[in-house]
Amino acid sequence: MPGLTNRDSHMGFKPIGSYPPTGIDVLIVGTGLGGLSAALECKRKGHEVRVLERNADINVAGDMYFMGLSGTRWFKHWPEIQEVYRDISLHNAWIETYKHSGEIMIPPKKVSERLRAAGLDPNLAPGEFQMRPLVYKMFLDAVVRTGIKIEFNRKVVDYFEDVRKGGCVTDDGTRYEADVVIAADGVGSKSQKLVGGQVRAESSGRAMWRAAFPRKHLDKNPEVKEFFKMQPGNEPIVRTFLGPSTYALTLSREDVMVWIMNHDVTGSEEENWNHTIDAEEVLQGIDDLPGKWCNIFKELLGGKENIAESVRAHVRMRFIRTACAQKMGLYNAELLQSTDWDKVKLDPRRAAPKHPKWIWEHDPEAYAYENYDKAIVSMETGVEMEEEDSFEPNYPKGYRYEPWDAFKIMEDMRNGVSLELKPGNWD
């Protein structure tokens, strides 16, 4: 399938109501962005959807993150979502790059200017900076509008499946069954025992200090307020600070200021948006870092008889791509934490993370429709996922998957052995 040269999807517009009811019951566990996205798309495809959430309410906490273009193409089928997304996105934001010491290395440029300098289409960014609370509310509002039911205070403690149904059990002993269960409840999901074995999450050895606060607090310090000012016309700007073994960034918006810094784990971090630590720990942590930091800082694919094969086809199309994307994340972390400023002066792209076309040009929905039947034939004839050649890969061409260990990669990086993205074309 050819790569996309614009923001739109290859798929025709099919809003909710375009598909007839399938009679397939889908149970989704978790109301993160993945769970809510799955709920909306399953509903659009005509399935019956229920969602379970362990907490008593929705969590709209969080700050800034980067949302890739390939992950938003399905918005085409949801006009309300698409409209809100356009309104809240940081389109063509300004970006400025500093050394950790405060020395400016790349002056403020719009994303379009940076893309043009890199020989890319200035009107087609690989994604956009987003505020998680705004994106989350956008998804949640859409879920409410479509009438999808969310049951709160449902902590799932076990999953099960047989030849007829799958399901889960909550901590009060309630059993839920469905034709398809989507476990969107995080890395430690109890579903792992059914989908490949329990895998213990390995720490990367890195964490993020993060803070988001009303911009008015900058009034307390005129010097800080001036440094982190917005661009003319009150346009938002992202400032990146690259230093030895770490990096940081800030976002200046009209309403909020976001401050994020990558650091070695200290033991006080948690996988929880509501977790906080004392500011003194952060200040001391910055002082302990190497170097002196600046103070300013397709149609219906089948009925119920095809559910199992559909899930296997999904794994076949997703697994290697996801593994490559995860490895790319480690590569980018190393790049930002070990900036060679002499090379950056010759080529500013060396101070920017990789955003290869195989990631952002991808149209996941169109790819699934185009290659689903081929994937099924391959599975029926015993072709292993790593040997799939009946359709184009959605990961780097020429790459052959081999299991890799995040812990080993992090250990190598600490020992000065750089991560190499190979084989294949990762650009």
Architecture overview:
- With 427 residues, this protein is an alpha/beta fold.
- Helices cover 29% and strands 20% of the residues.
- The protein has 11 helices and 15 strands.
- It has helices at 33-44, 79-88, 111-117, 132-145, 222-227, 279-287, 307-337, 341-346, 357-360, 364-380, 406-414, and strands spanning 25-29, 48-52, 64-68, 94-99, 104-110, 127-131, 149-151, 156-161, 166-170, 175-178, 180-183, 206-214, 237-243, 246-252, 256-264.
- The chain has a 6-stranded mixed beta sheet with strand order 5-4-13-14-15-12.
- Strand 8 and strand 9 form a beta hairpin.
- Helix 1 (33-44) packs parallel to helix 4.
- It is globular.
- It starts with 24 loop residues before the first strand and ends in a 13-residue tail after the last helix.
- GO terms for molecular function: monooxygenase activity.
- InterPro entries: FAD-dep_Monooxygenase_BioMet (IPR050493), FAD-dep_OxRdtase_2_FAD-bd (IPR003953), FAD/NAD-bd_sf (IPR036188).
- Belongs to the paxM FAD-dependent monooxygenase family.
Question: How are the SSEs placed, and which strands pair?
Answer:
Elements (H helix, E strand, L loop, with lengths): L24 E5 L3 H12 L3 E5 L11 E5 L10 H10 L5 E6 L4 E7 H7 L9 E5 H14 L3 E3 L4 E6 L4 E5 L4 E4 L1 E4 L22 E9 L7 H6 L9 E7 L2 E7 L3 E9 L14 H9 L19 H31 L3 H6 L10 H4 L3 H17 L25 H9 L13
Parallel strand pairs: 1-2, 1-11, 2-7, 4-13
Antiparallel strand pairs: 3-6, 4-5, 8-9, 9-10, 12-15, 13-14, 14-15
Properties at a glance:
29% helix, six-stranded mixed β-sheet, four-stranded parallel β-sheet, 427 residues, single chain, 11 helices, alpha/beta, disordered N terminus, 15 strands
